[in-house]
Write a structure and sequence with these properties.
Strand order of the largest sheet of chain B: 2-1-5-3-4
Structural class of chain B: alpha+beta
Radius of gyration of chain B: 15 Å
Low-confidence stretches of chain A: 1-44, 50-59
Mean pLDDT of chain B: 97
Number of helices of chain A: 20
Shape of chain A: globular
Mean pLDDT of chain A: 88
CATH superfamily of the largest domain in chain A: Aldehyde oxidase/xanthine dehydrogenase, molybdopterin binding domain
Oligomer: heterodimer
CATH topology of the largest domain in chain B: Ubiquitin-like (UB roll)
CATH superfamily of the largest domain in chain B: Beta-grasp domain
């Protein structure tokens, strides 16, 4: 892998000013949990509020410049990034942010995934649309520190005052003297590390805010070996694992006689809950795995109707009230408008199946894997094979899609066990069937919405109750913590609150226990919540006889809250620029929806029509305010991607439970949006903040509700259950 | 069983189980990793390559049928990195990939499409390519194929 190199690295005195760096690291969840346990509801709400409002901290602990950067002999800079590139464009954004302070061009920066040995580790993982917002300031600070180190080293070489030195394109200059960063690095043995320098004002930005193509464009167009599936180690064997295909099932017995006789098979290994087949090539391991005769203990035959019942809020096990403004007692009386909305179980379906190459030698392990959370994998390996965490080296690669699907479960511990067993490197790859049938899922949801309109058609009272299952907390910290917290506000809570200023406004998230693992997905809470609330708001607008955009704006009364100002701006821009007010053909339906997620806003106007009796999305205009934009085309790609995934999840995607198994076994049973579903997509920005916020997830929010609102506009029929087909 | 065919213009001989999908032979025996495993059922198109000029989903194509044939993978699509195939050139210009995993399959399908339909409409593209992309690069793929067709026509006119 190209992260390894023998090129010069600054050797330095270890006297870093860590003060400022460390302040930005760290995770506060540990301390808040204690308070929650004793305080119950009021404190739960408060903690959820803090978690919702706080900027996600950057979980990267080593903020020393040489952990991040290496100056190479050819005067390029290697940036070892602990955030994973899974398509979201973070490598490009990071290169632009770093170049800005480092005094090099974006092209001079070569971004590579950090390994746990050579670079910074990331305690939080890559997800939650947090990478850009979390890194924006620390990465500039660390780059500026590096630049100052180079300047002071050059000042020493030339014996001049540092203030006479200017930098640009990786060249240091003082008067007529010039040295490249590489030359200075080669001549320097002791580095002086300054206090964190002041950062460039925005007005002097050279790169941030400009259009850049992806830094990983060429390797991806040329088909270079950049994914974990592409990696090889000498003398490597191939493994396939059979997991229990039943929810809650356990392995009773297995007859592996036929499998072990299959040509090319080296070893069949039974673990507590899976059976691994190791062979000389992939085909042999897959075919032999099919010859395993396993018997499973299945304690209960779950059906979809069980799941539908369990996910109803009234059957939940605990809850957390996220909003409690005014009183909703009024809703128990007459003239209340109430509806329920449902979303199904979702699968990540990322294109590269999960896999790992593991090589365990004695008490050391090398792991190559595509994961959203390398630090977590490192700990799991140590535990699985009984070695020290520091002896586990994780090399990450580019990820063939993530969407939350590479966060909690990892193939790495099983791969490490198998490698330990045969004493050779093992390439474990899950089949697509395993990826659909044995994993964690986007939990289904059941929403109850109630509201009352005043005589002048304004919402007086609104109540949202959201029943769903765990998304991150149980998967991360265990069931007890989830019970203490009441429900998963950390991931699933997004979008539960009602954004509009309504006097009497309650919202509640109910934790329902499901018999299978559930976890994060692109906009895991945002997607179902925005579908439910923004469909309901549309129903209310129609009841009130008002224009759906104006109705929303009317409920965003200016309270001095900058978030409200930004939300309003996004809607006003949408009304003005999307063609919302222009006359439309009779065969077209139009719908809108708004969402706020992690302080980013997205509002969509969607047009649909019926083609051969089926709804087709023909045009999407998204107005997005992600705060400060680093790379406009990078954000555009994220919005386009989220739009397509939203269309896909709205129209087609679902898996169901039947006889304790998931009905979708592969893509043919889990239809997704294709080229034929691709509408015209226009992306418009309103940059409402000087800080960048996340953009990977927010734009998925408004897609499904805007589609169903458009369908109502076209047909008069209201869809309240996803998927539509 | 020994099987001989050519890959990207080079003759190759492999000794493998004749039922092995061509995909694994290309990837693991011949070390050409651009062709990807996606579903194993010829549904997603990540493993698309060309055999004697036809578009084939190699995860479901036993290598024994490749005997004596000409296989082209993404690595062999362009003449060189300096002289890219119109499809790859267009992909660069439109900045198409996100995670990038499905893109080789899409580019192989696109190369075949512009050969069959030199002047494709958007509708031709939508109807004739059924590969799966999870990141949602669909709008850019359509744009890039239209662009590739233009570049291709210019190339033909030149020669």
């Amino acid at each position: 892998m190209s992260t390894e190199n023998n090129n010069p690295t600054p050797k330095k005195k270890r006297k870093f000013s860590r003060r400022k760096f460390f302040k930005r690291g760290g995770i506060i969840l540990g301390t808040t949990l204690i308070g929650v346990y004793f305080g119950r509801n009021i404190i739960r709400r408060k903690v959820a509020q803090i978690a919702g409002d706080m900027d996600l901290p950057l979980g990267i602990m080593n903020m020393e410049p040489d952990f991040w950067f290496e100056i190479m002999e050819d005067n390029t800079v290697l940036l070892k990034l602990a955030k994973m590139e899974m398509g979201q464009g973070i490598f490009t954004g990071a290169a632009m942010i770093a170049a800005e302070e480092l005094g090099v061009t974006v092209e001079q920066i070569n971004v590579q995934p950090a390994t746990t040995k050579n670079g910074p580790t990331d305690m939080l993982g890559t997800g939650g649309s947090s990478s850009t917002s979390g890194m924006y300031t620390p990465l500039r600070e660390v780059a500026a520190t590096m630049r100052e180190m180079l300047i002071s080293a050059a000042a020493k070489i030339w014996n001049v005052d540092a203030s006479t030195i200017s930098v640009g394109s990786g060249i240091l200059q003082s008067g007529l003297q010039q040295l490249s960063y590489a030359e200075v690095t080669q001549q320097t043995t002791e580095w002086v590390v300054p206090k964190t320098p002041a950062l460039k004002p925005e007005s002097e930005f050279q790169y941030i805010g400009k259009e850049y193509k992806r830094v990983d464009l060429k390797p991806k167009v040329m088909g270079e070996s950049i994914f974990s599936i592409d990696m090889e180690l000498p003398d490597m064997l191939y493994a396939t694992i059979l997991y229990c295909p039943y929810i809650g099932g356990t392995l009773k017995s297995v007859n592996s006689d036929d499998a072990i006789k299959h040509p090319g098979v080296v070893k069949v290994e039974r673990s507590d809950d899976w059976i691994g087949v190791i062979a000389e090539n992939r085909f042999a391991s897959v075919m032999a795995c099919r010859k395993l005769k396993a018997e499973w203990d299945v304690p209960k035959m779950w059906q979809q109707s069980d799941i539908d019942e369990m996910i109803k809020p009234e059957n939940g096990v605990s809850f957390i009230k996220l909003q409690k403004d005014g009183s909703i007692d009024d809703l128990d009386k007459e003239n209340t408008f109430a509806q329920t909305y449902n979303t199904p179980i979702g699968v990540h379906a990322q294109m590269e199946p999960n896999g790992t190459i593991a090589h365990v030698q004695g008490d050391k392990a090398l792991i190559i894997t595509g994961t959203q959370w390398a630090d977590n994998v490192q700990g799991k390996i140590a535990k699985a094979i009984g070695i020290k965490k520091k002896n586990v080296e994780i090399k990450t690669t580019f990820l063939g899609g993530g969407f939350g699907g590479r966060y909690f479960q990892s193939t790495a511990p099983a791969a490490a066990k198998l490698s330990q067993l045969v004493g050779k490197p093992v390439h474990l790859l899950r089949t697509r069937e395993e990826e659909f049938q044995n994993r964690y899922y986007r939990p289904p949801s059941h929403h109850k919405l109630r509201a009352k309109l005043s005589e002048d058609g304004m919402i007086e009272t609104i109540d949202h109750v959201y029943g769903s299952a765990d998304m991150a907390i149980k998967a991360n910290a265990g069931d007890l913590v989830l019970k203490m917290l009441g429900a998963d506000f950390a991931a699933g809570g997004h979008g539960t609150r009602v954004l509009y200023n309504i006097k009497n406004r309650h919202s509640k998230i109910v934790n329902c226990k499901l018999p299978f693992p559930t976890g994060i997905w692109r906009g895991v809470g945002q997607f179902p919540n925005t579908f439910a609330i923004e469909s309901f708001i549309d129903e209310l607008a129609i009841k009130a006889g008002k224009d759906p955009i104006q109705f929303r704006i009317d409920h965003l009364t200016d309270t001095g809250d900058p978030l409200i100002v930004r939300a309003k701006k996004v809607l006003e821009t949408l009304a003005e620029k999307s063609g919302w007010k222009s006359p439309k053909r009779e065969d077209i339906g139009r719908g809108v929806a708004l969402c706020e997620d992690r302080k980013s806003f997205a509002a969509a106007m969607i047009e649909v029509k019926k083609v051969d009796g089926k709804i087709k999305v023909t045009r999407v205009v998204q107005v997005v305010d992600p705060g400060k934009i680093i790379n406009p085309d990078g954000v555009r790609m994220q919005v386009e991607g989220a739009t397509m995934m939203g269309i896909s999840a709205c129209l087609y995607e679902a898996t169901y439970v039947k006889d304790s198994q998931f009905t979708a076994t592969n893509y043919h049973q889990y239809p997704m949006a294709m080229l034929s579903d691709s509408p015209e997509i226009e992306v418009i920005f309103t940059e409402g903040s000087e800080k960048p916020y996340g953009v990977g997830e927010p734009p998925i929010g408004p897609v499904a509700p805007a589609i169903v609102n458009a369908i109502f506009d076209l047909t008069g029929e209201r869809k309240r259950r996803l998927p539509l087909y | 069983m020994k099987i001989s065919f050519s890959v990207n213009g080079n003759p190759v001989n492999v000794d493998v189980d004749p039922e092995t999908p061509l995909l694994w032979v290309v990837r693991d025996e011949l070390k050409l990793k651009a062709t990807k495993f996606g579903c194993g059922k010829a549904v997603c198109g990540s493993c698309s390559l060309h055999i004697n000029g036809d578009l084939v989903r190699s995860c479901s194509y036993p290598v024994k049928y490749a005997e004596g044939k000409q296989v082209t993978t993404l690595e062999g699509l362009s003449e060189s990195e300096k002289k890219l195939h119109p499809v790859q050139e267009a992909w660069m210009e439109i900045n198409v990939p996100q995670c990038g995993y499905c893109q080789p399959g899409f580019m192989m399908a696109a190369a075949k499409l512009i050969q069959e339909i030199p002047n494709p409409t958007e509708e031709d593209i939508r109807k004739n390519i059924s590969n799966i992309c999870r990141c949602g690069t669909h709008p850019r793929i359509i744009k890039a194929i239209l662009k590739a067709a233009e570049l291709n026509k210019a190339l033909i006119a030149e020669s």
